[in-house]
Amino acid sequence: MIDQINLKKFKNIYDKTYNNVLKFVVCKCSNMEDVKDIISTANRTKMETNRQYAYLTYLKNKVNELEKVRGASIENQKGYIKSISFSKRMIDEVRSNEKEYCVRIPYSEFFFYIPKDNVAWMSYDNRAVAYLIDDKEYELYDKNNQVVERIRGEQLAEVEKAEKQKINELYKNKE
């Protein structure tokens, strides 16, 4: 399947090179029918790329819908709370494994581990919500994977808010 970035690259290259490719093909082909066939094939390729992109967009929307349902299902389970929202960039891929994500808490330098089953993606593989057990103890790690603190699930969002407040105060002091 073709993603949006590659589709844009393809369209950009296609648009920039169409006239030059046409000139090249006309110069190298001795038969005008060959030129028409080559250009026709290029146009069919572009149409197929657009069709695949449209289908991929449709599938991404369906995945988003299913993730919303999954998130609501997790939230309705006893003891689970919606904790923090994070982006894919906040996942430490090196420390994550097949069962858990190692996620940096937004606005902080702390990380925590969360089972992948407790994460619902809000925007196809881009933004997610972590669902935690409110009274379970979670360990916070530093960048060197050393435990720095233990907190309950319900306190994790408070860590995020406190760190965000520190950053906001720094910007206020600079003004």
What does the main sheet amount to? 3 strands, antiparallel
CA-to-CA gap between the ends?
A: 48 Å
Number of DSSP-assigned strands: 7
Chain-averaged pLDDT:
83
SSE map:
Blueprint: H1 4-28, H2 32-76, E1 80-87, E2 100-104, E3 111-115, E4 119-123, E5 127-133, E6 137-141, E7 147-152, H3 153-174
Antiparallel strand pairs: 1-5, 2-3, 4-5, 6-7
Helix pairs in contact: 1-2
Describe, in plain words, how this protein is organized in 3D:
The chain has 175 residues and is of the alpha+beta class. It contains 3 helices and 7 strands, in the order H-H-E-E-E-E-E-E-E-H. A 3-stranded antiparallel beta sheet has the order 1-5-4, sandwiched between helices. A two-stranded antiparallel sheet has the order 2-3. Strand 2 and strand 3 form a beta hairpin. Helix 1 packs antiparallel against helix 2 (32-76). The model has no long low-confidence stretch (mean pLDDT 83).
Brief write-up:
The protein is an alpha+beta fold and 175 residues long.
